[in-house]
Design goal:
Shape: globular
Number of strands: 2
Helix content: 40-55%
Strand content: under 5%
Number of helices: 6
Radius of gyration: 14 Å
Structural class: mainly alpha
Distance between the termini: 42 Å
Largest sheet: 2 strands, antiparallel
Order of helices and strands: EHHHHHEH
Strand order of the largest sheet: 1-2
């Protein structure tokens, strides 16, 4: 069984206002494949992960990780919110 690959694809796609259909067409896959990746039901091949990262002009590690991503607010601001 393969290890789960965590991703921020849905967040980046929404931020950039790119539909699943448009992204799928740009990287040469079916739009449902994008949904499967976003939900963690399918790990992309290295080729596909690199194409997705290139489409958004991001390093692949900004989209995909073997470890769960921290919330963006934690990454940007640290644990300042928990000092209440």
């Amino acid at each position: 069984m393969s290890e789960q690959v965590h991703n921020r694809l849905a967040m980046v796609r929404a931020e950039r206002k790119v539909s699943r259909q448009a992204l799928a067409a740009a990287v040469g896959v079916h739009y449902q494949t994008i949904g499967y990746i976003e939900r963690g039901q399918y790990n992309p091949s290295l080729d596909l992960a690199l194409k997705l990262a290139a489409h958004f002009r991001l390093p692949v590690e900004a989209l995909f990780s073997l470890e769960p991503f921290q919330p963006l607010t934690t990454e940007i601001y640290g644990d300042q919110g928990s000092q209440e």
